[in-house]
Write a structure and sequence with these properties.
The protein has 285 residues and is mainly alpha-helical. It is 69% helix and 3% strand. It contains nine helices and two strands; from the N terminus they run αααββαααααα. A hairpin with a 2-residue loop joins strand 1 and strand 2.
Amino acid sequence: MTIIEKIHNFLDYEIETPSSYGAFHIVSLVLIVAFTVFLCKAFKNSDEKSERRIAFWCWIVVVVLEIYKQLNFSISFEEGVFVWDYSWYSFPFQFCSSPIYVLPLVAFLPSGKVREALVAFLGTFSLFAGLAVCIYPNDVYISTLGIDIQTTVHHGLQVVLGIFFALRRFDCENPPKKKSYLLGAISVFAVFAGTAMLLNIVGYHALTALGIDETFNMFYISPYFECTLPVLSIVDDFLPYPIFLAVYIFGFGLVAFIMMTLVNSVIFAVRKIITKTKLNGNKYA
């Protein structure tokens, strides 16, 4: 066995596929919650420079794990022969892949409306996508340990950073206006969705011309392939494509609003509890 084969076998280590709310999933959730609490408490009063560093290093982690994922899905050994067969369905431009492109911009873009729109996207759309997978992993777990770790870290960081950035924006003396915050997030989502649609059209025809018969469905909005996302797959089965697309866009816009509202509700509730505790403490002092 060559050194390359040994490395491949190590990175492709097989386990029994984890189940939803099994040991692997529960431990993952505990670690995600713990890291979220740590980051939000440790860097609550940090400056923008620290915020940028957090975005940068989290981006490095996400990119390294994504490279591993792409190699793992595309490399195999057949009878001792190295084989490369790119898995087009895993092309890194899905909804949950957005932090790969957003985090470096948050880390390096000058302060301003564009950067704040990207931060708002992390605290709404990206947060929801991460929560959805963490709460209902469904078929994201497979029998490869490294990929299960990759998907846990990737989606877990979406939750951690989404909450971290949202709290930093709203749990302060001068929070942004909710309308402008949400519109900024929606603008970023629109750019991603539009790019995904362009990739779907160009990718489908390019792959077909090359004789490659693989699913290429970025953001799961391709007019050529069925949507496999929970709930939306049902909508896709029963409604014409234009209506499905409208439901998709409206639905994600709605959950972004819900995420923003949820964060603000938690902040309000915590402040109320703290205020009540202080008042009771003064009363009995």
